[in-house]
């Protein structure tokens, strides 16, 4: 692969997976403006579509190619992603392959690949990405603030790639793909006090970081992670607020502990998600791989893969086998995913991701919704899903009002 193709592949996939910086988006659209790159861009879109089909095939090969070619040959991009509703069911469904592909084409303007008026069309697509549309809200993205042990703050979304700071002997770097990485230096004294750092995401933000032991953490909107720049002693301890997904590096001699509220989640090496927003009615810990011990003053128990621990305010911890792990971690994959969810639950997620206020006029709809859609769509497109089930709304000045 040539250096140009490698760069194009990186830019495309960074945008597709919502990790591209604004500078990388601008560079990508400059490449789109050049008709010489049509073949490479078309190949990337085909590859993205084929990946979706491989992960969760919805159509036979012939039907899949007919649909994709129809999208690529259209003269204007689709304005939104529409759900397909099964008859006689009070549920909302989306065909995930179409939704995910449309996510690329709506934000990307793939129609410009064959449109003779490419430059003009691309300028309109780029303007949609940069400008907040009237009576609508753009989705969140990679936004976070790093607070160092000395109190200095670094805005990560605007910080340049490379070395950001030295915490003790830990080197703090921002990688080209937008991650924050801690690398332990040499000659770290065991007696030196740990430098505690904090990464905080705002409403409308998310971020990924790699701790100095190799553990990976994804932070959802309105969340924070406090951690030592270098792990020392008998345990690896961190503390979170909000929601985080962990892939913990194995180290049997040094257990990994996550403190959240008055509860401790202890692991050796595993994958799990913790959701502990103050405005939710319960804290939920969902285990995908390995084993987890969860405990507080009243309870101690072990989770098996696929199980979820639910802790409601002032109540006992309950372990259930009925939770769907895919639902719990869909946010990490860039998806809103609901299963028999009430409108209030959905709107709490929307409020955090789009950084909006939500209010209800009249009686709150009692319907339950099941469906999924990319988190990369505008707020109106998410709400458009719900409109198919009779939920009306209006969006004004970063305020979503659910109407009767």
From TrEMBL:
This is FecR family protein. Residues 336-402 form the Protein FecR C-terminal domain. Keywords: Membrane, Transmembrane, Transmembrane helix. Gene3D superfamilies: 2.60.120.1440, 3.55.50.30. The chain crosses the membrane at residues 92-114. InterPro entries: FecR, FecR_C, Ferrdict_sens_TM. One of its GO terms (molecular function) is sigma factor antagonist activity. It holds the Pfam family FecR_C. Residues 198-293 form the FecR protein domain.
